[in-house]
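Fold this sequence, please.
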Amino acid sequence: MSKHVHDDRPWIKLDSDLQPEHAAFAEPEWAEQGDGAESSGKLATSRRGFLTALGLSAASMAACERLPVRRAMPYLIPPDDITPGVPAYYASTCLACSANCGTLVKVLDGRPVKLEGNPEHPISRGGLCAIGQADLRALYDPTRLQAPTIDGQAATWDDVDGRVRQRLAQVAAGQSIYVVSASITSPSARRAIGTFLAPYGGTLVEHDLDPQSPSAARDAYRVLDGMPLQPALDLEQVDLLVGLGADPFGTGPDPVGNTAAWAARRRAGEHYGPPRHVQIEGSLSLSGANADQRWAATAAEREQIALWILGEVANRLGVTGAAEIGTALAGLSETPPHEADLVEIVDALIGAPGRCLVVSSSERSAEQIAVALTNRLLGNEGHTLNLERSMLAQRGSDAALAAFRDELAAGTVGAAIIVDLDLVGRSPDGEALGGQLAALPLSVAVATRPSASTAACQIVAAAHQGQERWADAQPRQDLSTLAQPTIRPIFDTRDPWENFLTWSGSATSQWREFLQQSWAANDATDWPELVRTAGLSAAVGQTEAAHDVEMVGSEPPRPQNQLAAPSAAALQVLTTASQQPAVSGAVEIEIITEVSCRNGSHAANPWLRELPDPLTRVSWAGCARVAPSRARDLGIEDGSVVELATEGAVVTMPAVVLPGQHPDVVAVPAGYGIWDEADPDSVDPARAEAVAQLVAYAADTDQGPQWRGRSVQLTNTGRTSVVPRIQIHAKTEGRPIIHQVSAHDEAVHVPHHPDADLWEARDEPSPQWGMVIDLDACVGCAGCVVACQAENNIPVVGADQMARHRDMYWLRIDRYFVGDADDPDVLFEPMLCAQCDHAPCETVCPVAATVQSEDGLNQQIYNRCVGTRYCANNCPYKVRRFNWFKFEPTDPIERLVLNPDVVVRSRGVMEKCTFCVQRIQSERIDARRDGRPSFEVQTACQQSCPAQAISFGDSTDADGPIALLSDKPRAFQVLAELGVKPSLTYMARIRNRDDAGEHDTSDAPAAAEHGGTP
């Protein structure tokens, strides 16, 4: 043994007992440095010694610090409904928007980890949109309001309540009190607000700052019948749907319910005849992309088209009131665009009485009155349009908000309480409104997040997030549901409606008790059962479930020929509109909403900000949409920074060139941008406050926001901006990877390839998992993308990484254009790992990190992966993702969103879709426990899909859905000619049009290729 050298450093002794024969190898690292080393300027400690010392020093410091004692305490008496590690499911209602779809909340050890649609809900039928799926991320948002404030300073709830009562008592006589809110679908909340306002004679104003708001449609029925209402659409009964700018499947008031009903109707077309959808719009929407036939038209042209259709229908049917309508429309001297096509549409409408439907999203009263009268003349009311069970999802009134603004400007408002609405940030006159609110004796913002409105108000009442609340909802006149909290409030917040109980001095100040009393007053007394079923045990009996409605297959109903003449007020509106001169040549601005951020109320949610728009394929950035022909004239490409100038406003933002856009229409999304209280001057080029400047208040009777038709000066600034775009290539390069046909029984013709194989056949035990996606049902809503993200802990990578094409999505929605650039067909194709039986990724992995399982899954073993990326290079579908950085959330609150059933991947590994193998394993365990020989599984994307376009199951089951659907004439596989044997099958899109099959789907329009991101 070598002799120890005395040294105070304890780590030297670890290696000081080396055998003599090993001492030579240790000498360079561990030998003592003499004076020569110091005089030469070199460090006396080697690199290895320094790192070792650093590590041991850190360990020593940690050892000197007493760690908190943590004990795992088992339940003394375990709850009956909680088993640690085993999830519980609670029925509730989605409060992320006013559609109020039914949900099932997966709760694990006291925290929600996944939201699903409730299949018992009669409207949504188990579907859930991207907004609903992302509501989980909104719950665990560490940047939302965490406590109440007064004048920007932290306060207690007692302080807030005292200040509100004091200021209310000081409101001078003659001054009014307003509660201004987004649409309130909760009957109990309306009752609480009514109790609060009654002593003051106050007013409730509901307003929806949304381009798809049905406010004008509701007012049309008020003019016609004296009562504002929004009839429910029964799309499952529709044979011909004509849309005038409306987007019922994408961003309308009830996209999940409408998508579910329309998809059911399209599936029934195999037996009852296919339905037909004609869309007339200025900017390409999700509904327009799915239409059988689509025409581009400006807002003014769409109004003329609506009036012309009404006149033709009234004249040809000859019903009561037709003469009055004809007289009112006598001023229509201009020939509407697409006149020849419109004649055929009118023929089709008259030939389908009671089975057709015309819908519009216009804010113009004349267009909405024309649409309502057209549906009435065609006998659609009571069939495809139900007035008796009207929709209550968006009941906001433009006229009511105009009255509030007028009083606010006149100084007659004494107190204003703004609930769940960024009125300052998203109104055209937001800056003026903010100053007026700040000057009031009392202004209160009840909100979950900081906004321009919370900054303007004196008091901010931090509100519970939707998953922390008790609530009820009435999205339709004959349907009421309940929402229950699935987690205790994370921060010092309060239910928004409990504020009004407290401030009014109600005998019941607890919101849950008040809610229970409200339902008991309506003879719904079995509260535990109501909570268990989210109120559906009482509500289902009130309405006929949409999927139980019998399809129209017998003699169609005839329209009523005894129709009362329209009111004088309605005829006057039609007369005025028909005399307006046609405007052409000017470029119009059209404010639109996208499926991710909608109207801006979800702009702070990173899951939604990163979600690529299904049409533009852009994430994180709001971009002006420009038609290819207009882009050529101005030299605009993707990423070109353009200037939009209207009267009193100039906004700059990046542009994208979008086929299908009207040449005279520039579309701007309303929902992007986050108001930052810490940096209010921060500029997001398309943030809501900036876009709001492009909106004007219309000069008609209602003075509502003018979302469409305003003239704008479009200029190319010559600058460029990086646009985070996930897909820059719209061509299939001659490969038959997507198809559309004209009928259900039309076969897809794909090249035949011999069954030659490099691999020996192997025994395939049951099950062998497979998936079929029906492209005819898929509308591209991207709800499945967010569902996959929530289920599988897919991280948010940010705008910079998205711009570098380093997205982490396991499932994406590919979009292709077919035909002419000005009038293309749009095809969506969800793309995910095909789970190839002969996967090319497996042959090139040097560490066997990706292998085939016995049940047909292409497994990804993360702890083997060393990140060579050979598998990604060899994947023909390009669905593998490489973790370039550690994207795992670090904030303790944000980490609560992680699903413990799925491992969080580390930096430097490949990841991809696994067909939700964790769900397969869970169901397999349950089946073994129960002694069942087989079991069924729903993947996250399948469960969320409103259209039920995704089927999943055992492909070896001859009577199962996978085998049956794969045998259909429309079935095809992508790149099957490579011999990879994918387990993923598609069914071709059906266009109910004679020439649908004539387009070569392998070629997109040349104008659709415009360079991509700079």
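The chain has a mean pLDDT of 84. Residues 149-211+395-538 form a domain with the Rossmann fold fold (CATH 3.40.50.740).
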